[in-house]
Amino acid sequence: MSRQYIGCRQLEQIRDKLIDRDIEILTSLVRYRFLTTRQICRLHFYNKRTQNVAMRSCNRALAKLNNLRLIDPFERRIGGVRAGSGSYVWQLSSVGNRLLRITVNTDCLPKRRRAYEPSRTFLKHTLAVAEICLCLSEAERHGSFIVSDLQREPDCWRVYNGTSGSVMRLKPDLGLVTISGEFEDYWFLEIDLATEPPSRVIRTCLNYEAYRRSGIEQKKFGVFPAVIWIVPTEGRKSAVQARLDEDSRISPGLFFVILPNELEQLIHAGVENTQQEAEYAK
C-alpha cells in the first residue's frame, strides 16, 4: 500500500518540529549517502557524557526522523542482528530530500530522490568511505592535524588525456589536503575491501602514474598527492605492498599501503617524514 503524499503545508509543519541537529543528520545522509546508526552517533552525538547516553540520544533522534518519514532504514543490517541497534543503515527519503530543498542550499540535492536498496558490495564500500571520513574528523578533533580540504566523489575525480589522446578518468575515493605543524600535505585515498585481486590495484596505480606524468595536478597545486591504499587486513596489506615493490613501473614513495587504524599516524607524520622513514627501513 502506498503511503500518503505529504504536501507543501505538511512539509513546513514537519520542518517546524526539527532542531538544528536533525537538519545536520539529514545533511550528513546527503553527504555520505548511507550511514549506520553508530556512525551517525559518532558524527553528531560525540559530546555526550558517555557512549551509552550518546547512543540513546541518537536512537531517539533517528526514531523521530523515521516517524516523520524523513529517513528510511534498510531491510538488512551491517553485521547482522547481533550487532545491535548501531548496525542499522539509514538513507535520506524522498520526503527528507524535499524538506532539505526548502531548508538548506539545494545545489547538491536532486529535485527528486527515491530511496533504494543498493548492492551489498556498493553499500559496504560506501560505508567504508564514510568510516574513513569519520576517522579523519575524529583525528582532527584530537588535534592530530587539520583537514583543510576534503573532496568526495565525484569532486575528487580527475580527467586527463592518455598516451593515445583518449580521455582518461582517475577516480579516487577521496581527495584530501591536511596541515600538520608547518607542513601542508596532499593525498588521494583509495579504500580497498579486498574484493579484487592485487593485479587490479596495480592497474589503478599505473593510472595514477599516467596522471602524474600529465603534470595537471602539479601545475594546479605545485605537488602531486601521495596515494594511500587503505586495506582491511594484514594479509591484504602484505600482498598489495609486495606487488607494488616488485613492479618497476611504480614510483617509490608515491603509494602507501596501510590499515585503517594507521591512517591518523601516517597523516600526522606527513608525506616527507613517512617517505624518509620508509627509505631508512630499507
Strand and helix layout:
Elements: H1 8-16, H2 20-32, E1 35-36, H3 37-44, H4 51-67, E2 71-73, E3 89-92, H5 94-101, H6 120-142, E4 146-152, E5 158-161, E6 167-170, E7 174-180, E8 183-191, H7 198-214, H8 216-221, E9 226-230, H9 234-246, E10 255-258, H10 263-269, H11 271-281
Parallel strand pairs: 8-9, 9-10
Antiparallel strand pairs: 1-3, 2-3, 4-7, 5-6, 7-8
Description:
By secondary structure, the protein is an alpha+beta fold. It has two domains: 8-117, Orthogonal Bundle (Arc Repressor Mutant, subunit A); 123-281, Trna Endonuclease, Chain: A, domain 1. It contains eleven helices and ten strands. The strands form three sheets. It has a five-stranded mixed beta sheet. Strands 1-3-2 form a three-stranded antiparallel beta sheet. A hairpin with a 5-residue loop joins strand 5 and strand 6 (167-170). The radius of gyration is 21 Å and the shape is globular. The model has no long low-confidence stretch (mean pLDDT 89).
